[in-house]
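Technical appendix A lists one of the benchmark inputs used to test multi-chain prediction within the project. The record comprises four sequence entries:
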Amino acid sequence: MDPYKSLREEAYEANMEIPRRALALYTWGNVSAFDRQRAILAIKPSGVAYEALKVSDMVVMDLEGKKVDGKLNPSSDTKTHIVLYRVFPGIAGVTHTHSTYAVAWAQARRSVPVLGTTHADHCTHPIPCTEYISEEALKHDYEQETGNLIVATFRSQQLDPEEIPMVLVAGHGPFTWGASAAKSVYHAAVLEEICKMAYLTGVLSDDIKGLPAYIVQKHYDRKHGANAYYGQR
Amino acid sequence: MDPYKSLREEAYEANMEIPRRALALYTWGNVSAFDRQRAILAIKPSGVAYEALKVSDMVVMDLEGKKVDGKLNPSSDTKTHIVLYRVFPGIAGVTHTHSTYAVAWAQARRSVPVLGTTHADHCTHPIPCTEYISEEALKHDYEQETGNLIVATFRSQQLDPEEIPMVLVAGHGPFTWGASAAKSVYHAAVLEEICKMAYLTGVLSDDIKGLPAYIVQKHYDRKHGANAYYGQR
Amino acid sequence: MDPYKSLREEAYEANMEIPRRALALYTWGNVSAFDRQRAILAIKPSGVAYEALKVSDMVVMDLEGKKVDGKLNPSSDTKTHIVLYRVFPGIAGVTHTHSTYAVAWAQARRSVPVLGTTHADHCTHPIPCTEYISEEALKHDYEQETGNLIVATFRSQQLDPEEIPMVLVAGHGPFTWGASAAKSVYHAAVLEEICKMAYLTGVLSDDIKGLPAYIVQKHYDRKHGANAYYGQR
Amino acid sequence: MDPYKSLREEAYEANMEIPRRALALYTWGNVSAFDRQRAILAIKPSGVAYEALKVSDMVVMDLEGKKVDGKLNPSSDTKTHIVLYRVFPGIAGVTHTHSTYAVAWAQARRSVPVLGTTHADHCTHPIPCTEYISEEALKHDYEQETGNLIVATFRSQQLDPEEIPMVLVAGHGPFTWGASAAKSVYHAAVLEEICKMAYLTGVLSDDIKGLPAYIVQKHYDRKHGANAYYGQR
């Protein structure tokens, strides 16, 4: 019996959403599922094609970055995931993709303004874009420092990672998270669509002020507020 | 025997066009089918994934917004649908999506000019875009007032909802309608394509005057006029 | 025995390429196959969905625009096809679509310059765009005069319809033709791709001079010249 | 027994990636697989549709451009492939496509700057774009001189074809290569995605300086450096 089976399954299912939703080509992308009680995560192995991926390939890691179980090397981005699990309370899934429009905003080093309710349904703030990682940080430990860069961006701008479950790393691409691996990859797909809509809006109008705050808040609260009435409860 | 079976089936089939035609991701979109004689509508339940949707999940509502039959909560946009059924004569289907190009025009708060015959085949006027909903209206009853906003836009501009079966709600997205649920979702797909074509045209030319009125009228009349000769009659 | 069976099959197969290659939504598009010896054409019936289309639905027409065989009404664009068969020598197929990028260029009323070898492989000239049809012509006989407008555009600019098997009708969309129905719909797919490539190129560079004439000619001759060496001969 | 069977299979499999990954319409594209020891290559036959393509159709050629085995004519671009095999050490696969965004950059005659890690993961330099081929070279031997043009571009700019496994031929489109036929078509898909991301980034920002050199180098080294740690080794 594999004591990590259900965690591996959760990670596997979420990883398979990446090719299904066309969020990355080839092996570019990874999702992890986190078990906060046992303080372990299951993550995609590095460089394995989605078509060949099996549940048992998922690599189980602890929060020190040591392998707990698995034959393969974990995703090269594992340390970034670990920093997010360590610092952001309540999250249990992290996703990294190279989805096209999100990468374009990250390459343009622009935060994505709240232009409509599709964005506000998921997040009341602009999607932040970090600075480029510094050379010093990169040389220290690139993947860990990428996690630290995300955390520093949220802290310096006083952003709440529960309200804004996504970020663009400048020159690189998106990281998203959520209460489960499935939620984190859902946020990756949402982010890509928000980025595409915002891109098109910017071409249609060079005078974008963004959605009034009362509409933003209303849409967020419909889905996520104390009196939320979207969905089946 | 379910006395609402055929209405539910009509709503279900039309809702399933949303993922088939890629008019929204996940659960973002809803179609209702209206029985004017019985003054009831069948609508998608809120937040249920299309892959899991069943005919019996469709929620039957009356025009007061009360549930007539069904186990699930109706779409959170139900009140908007009800306003349109109450005010616009002859319509029997309403669709709301977050299709990408239609949302981009709604976010840019621009009406879509009549640039070609693809547009004129379906509608002789620009697709109107509302103002942002006011804070007062939003606080009163957001979804009902979204319906009222659409109605007010048509009245103040003296537009005929039978001739223009579609609207963009500023900062939000498209609502479309028609003589059946199927027609309303057809109009949602048409609108998305018109919005994409108009977007591309605007990039290709910054001097868009639009199609001459006599061509617009001719194309509309070929399909919808008293002497229409398009299709099989 | 249906004496028009093979002509109908040719038309049917070519029509089915329209949805397969995403050249039009719903019923917006039509292909005809022409038998020059019998002076008859088989064309898609008007307003019939591609999923429901059968070989036997194809309508057989003569060059006077009279129905020779078939139960359904022919495409409302039939007269445009007939003009092209009457005037352009050697063609045996005509296609009309509303493909997105070709429509955008037609709506912008711009000819498509020869920017690369993808274009030159098929045609050595810019793809012409007509003027808007005049009100007088439209009132006389819209579809026939659309054919006349295409012919007049080619004559006034001294273009050879065999070398340029495609045109954009201003504010409307593309018509393409060829030595068979299959070739005409091939040209419709080629045109859409050329239009997309030219659109993107225009965004990347505002100083497009176009491919030098000697490269244009070489690529065309590789495929279509007296000493062509592309393909299997 | 076919002594070229495995080489043909390698070429066939790589060619079939072109339609699977939508890198070209119809027959526009070709991949070859090279056996450096025997100094022969297997290449797609000219003008044969991918749906009809069989392993045994692959044409075996030597480095003089003479057919070694096969019934069909080889791709008209065969001489370009041969030049690259002759001059670039270590490569064993070449791919040519007409993928949309790569062609747009080639038509705009622009090199693609390194804007993000998706690019840097594969190549540390801008993707070079050649000059237009000269009329003299074209008249001498178009396909061979296209190969020479690529080689001259790399030499004059002192570029290493192992580090930059891709090029845009001005007004034409992309050629890519790699240590196998599969790698070369992988690079064709990567190039298309890089070109799309760079296109979108350019629209979002008119002040693109590009990724700092230390990030570029780090990403390349993660995958390709002496201490690479991406993937399973």
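The first helix of chain C runs from residue 5 to 20. The mean pLDDT of chain C is 96. Comparable benchmark entries are summarised in Table A2.
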